[in-house]
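Summary for the funding panel

The consortium committed to producing paired sequence-structure records for every protein in the target list. Below we show the first two records in order, beginning with the earlier of the two.
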Amino acid sequence: MNDSEKTSFKCGYCAIMGRPNAGKSTLLNQLCGDMVAIVTDKPQTTRDSITAIKTTDKHQIIFLDTPGLHESSKALNKKMARTAEESAESADVLLFLCDASREQFQTDLALAQKLSAGGKPLLVALNKTDSVRKENLLPLIKKWADAGVGTIVPISAKTGNGVPELEKEISSMLPEGPALYPEDMITDQRERFLASEIIRSKIMLFTHMEVPYSSMVSVEEYKERSQALTAVKAIIYVEKESQKGILIGAGGSMIKRIGKASREDLEKRFGRKFFLELEVKTRKDWTSDAKFLKRHESDYKG
């Protein structure tokens, strides 16, 4: 990079906000070209702010994928809401993502206005346009424009349509400055956090009803036994004995299935062998236990 290019280099933080199941994690992975955040067809998959980094010769965008915004009295959901709000406070640009296929304009507008009340640059991405007729999309764009939002980008995070244009708009709003991370780095999450997310994604994939939302993965041990082998021991906490039974399965069939799929993903992601040990424990009403959540929230950060 020569001196003239360095002077116009953009670098900053962009928080991806929105209601549950708007497609935030899918968009993050599309922008970065890698699986940084877990993606399922279930809402409220993201519980923590996931950091992903996209570096080009013109910019470095540090994306913050945040939990879906919704009202709840549970300690877990309050923690998720705080995480989203803290991400908005630390970001240079706010990207509000809407599910255009399930238009709830007034709800989305109220959330976007609340987040941008501090005066930070805001742009709106209308997602899932691959499932929306053009004649239905244009009035929605007009509603956002009439509400005073200057930058509205229709996209499909699933197909990638409109995502390059969205990235350009984000970059134009960032401050000039040097890169904060190495150019080949795509996330600052620790490996043990990524391991817990991969295990949790398999729980969400293979189980149903309340089990995915009542499960938490705590990585108790993460040891590199050699350059070619890492040993991981994780505890899956659930709220009820019945949920524990579902996760273990008949003859241990479900926990074996979750373990096998998780180990395969870990080995694919990190390029080495993994020994994975999973245990299921019942912790009654852990989603409402603020002390329990606080004890575990810093396990994988930093």
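The next record, for a separate protein in the list, is shown here:
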Amino acid sequence: MKILILILKGVAIGIAMLVPGVSGGTMAIILGVYDDLIHSVSSFFKDIKKNFIFLFYIAIGGIIGVLAFSKLIEYALDNFRYPTMYFFIGIVIGGIPVLYQKVDNSKGQVKNWLYFGLGFIIVLVMSIYNGTIVNLANSTGVLQFIFLFIAGIVISVALILPGISTSFMLLVLGMYDITIKAINNLYVSYLAPIAIGLAFGIIATTKILEHAMKKKPSQTYMLILGFVTGSIIPVFPGLPEKTYEIVISAAVLVIGFVVIRIISKKFAD
């Protein structure tokens, strides 16, 4: 049963990674496995068997979530954009109380909110960034491999750091659509270098993040909370033109909020 729960949590994290504006790291916090994930990676060689088993089941679930739901999410975004995006926003908002519970505002409350503001501004800057990135994802050979490897490292920061959506980072890099397509069609030559870059980036950054969580937990979580709150703005698709779409969108936003609150209370332990 414990194994099944770990796999299901991995599935939820994998699905969250596909959704622009929803962070897989935030989902891991909501499900109560984030600290264990960070510790298992950063201290992998201290207890190889235990850490490998834990990471293996989470990874299996994550792969299942990505492969099983990538087509569904792509279809929903193409055909029901407003309700889908409002559902995602409901999920993001529903995760905010979980993050705030991690913050101790009894000391240095003003300082903590400065970290929140910093996180909020960083996400907004990322969302309006329109610099010309030469997209080499469609090239071939060594050049493509190097580009995708570096992209994987950049994406790993979003994967490890809660509040920054992996899919949002792909959007910033101009790689979201092609990556979803690659997943749906299992383009190994495209996905493999990204996966290698992800693994390299994760190993390189987990120690830093674990240290921050231990030394300045409240400030770190307020920074993350700023990321999460800021991500709502670029994800917001505007108001639908038709009245019935507004009603449906509002309803699914509430559903998304309620679902994530139930999940956070029932399955975080």
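Regarding this second record: The radius of gyration is 18 Å. Residues 130-134 have pLDDT under 50 and may be disordered.
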